[in-house]
Amino acid sequence: MLNIKDKLFKFLIFLCATVVVCIVVGMCITLFFNSLPIFLHIGWKFVFSRTWNPINNQFGAIPFIIGTIITSFMALTISLPFSLSIAIFLGEYLRKGKIALLFRNMIDIMAGIPSVVYGFWGLFVLVPVIQKLEMKLSIVPYGVGIFAASVVLSIMIIPYTASIAYEVINLVPENLREAGYSLGATKWEIINHLVLPYARSGIFAGILLALGRAIGETMAVTMVIGNRNYIPKSIFDPANTIASAIANQFTEAASDIYVSALIGLGFILFIITVAINIAGRYVIKKFAVKGQL
Predict the structure, then answer these.
(1) How many CA atoms lie less than 13 Å away from 230 in the CB half-sphere?
(2) CA torsion sign, 20 to 21 to 23 to 27?
């Protein structure tokens, strides 16, 4: 009886894994074949051209690629100090109690807030503040732009890195901390030389998850980035990401080549995401504590 249950369990696991793999492969094949017309039409110029003019059938993806990369990595840079501070605070200084539970619940709530709510908050609260800052810096006061989108994204991805980093810090063996204290180490030295090195692979996994969330975010970014199809010259310029360009223009695509160009943008976004995840997995394995993975 147990043997039958074991085989059934293995079969269900294999079936679920196969379904997931088929979905990913199917998405890749679908994006590739539907974006093929644009690559046959203008070749690799589609990826590297900076002109996006659907009226004249001129399509170039580089402004959107640059906008996606800048906003995502800038958001990650802004969010990282806050995420790690929250994780260390909850994992080392406030491990138990009602206040700790309140903090953890607030982080979970932040992760569950719809992106459109963040977008509205950015549009009506953050953008006017950025406009005032731009006027003080003698910059054209767009308000919307790369900087506004990055700040909104950074707030959205804080819970992802913070929650995973907190869980990983909690998994650090207590005997390591006790050994450090017995040698006369301070709290800061324990965190800096024991906890963070031990948990670094897990923390990086959280960073990778947050980056993936930032790269694929659509609605909040669309509302505050300015939606201009040009390469930004500064972080305050309006721009577009791949996701925001697709969201804005897909319903307006009147020709097959235009639709193919937008699907081609989706295919490029898919490749960027896969490449970042592969590179991230390599870094995680490279810096993991021996025996941890």
Answers:
(1) 9
(2) positive
Alpha-carbon separation of residue 256 from 41, 237, 241, 253, 263 (angstroms)? 11, 31, 22, 8, 11
pLDDT in tens, 138-181: 888 888 899 999 999 999 999 988 888 888 888 888 888 888 88
| Helices 62-88 and 242-249: angle between axes, nearest 10 degrees | 120
**66, containing H or E segment:** helix 62-88
List the chain domain ranges: 40-287
Over the chain (293 residues), the average pLDDT of each successive run of 10 is 71 86 88 88 86 86 92 93 89 81 85 88 92 89 91 92 86 82 82 84 85 87 89 90 89 85 91 84 67 48
DSSP readout, 127-176? HHHHHHHHHHTT------SHHHHHHHHHHHHHHHHHHHHHHHHHTS-HHH
Please say whether the beta carbons of 146 and 235 come within 8 A: yes
Beta-bridged to residue 239, according to DSSP, are 226
* Nearest by Cα to 67 from 52, 83, 81: 52
Based on its alpha-carbon atoms, the radius of gyration of the chain, rounded to whole angstroms, reads: 23
Q: Which candidate, 241, 242, 211, places its Cα nearest to that of 226?
A: 241
C-alpha distances (whole Å) from 124 to each of 118, 119, 222, 227 are 10, 9, 14, 17
Homologous superfamily in CATH for domain 40-287: MetI-like (1.10.3720.10)
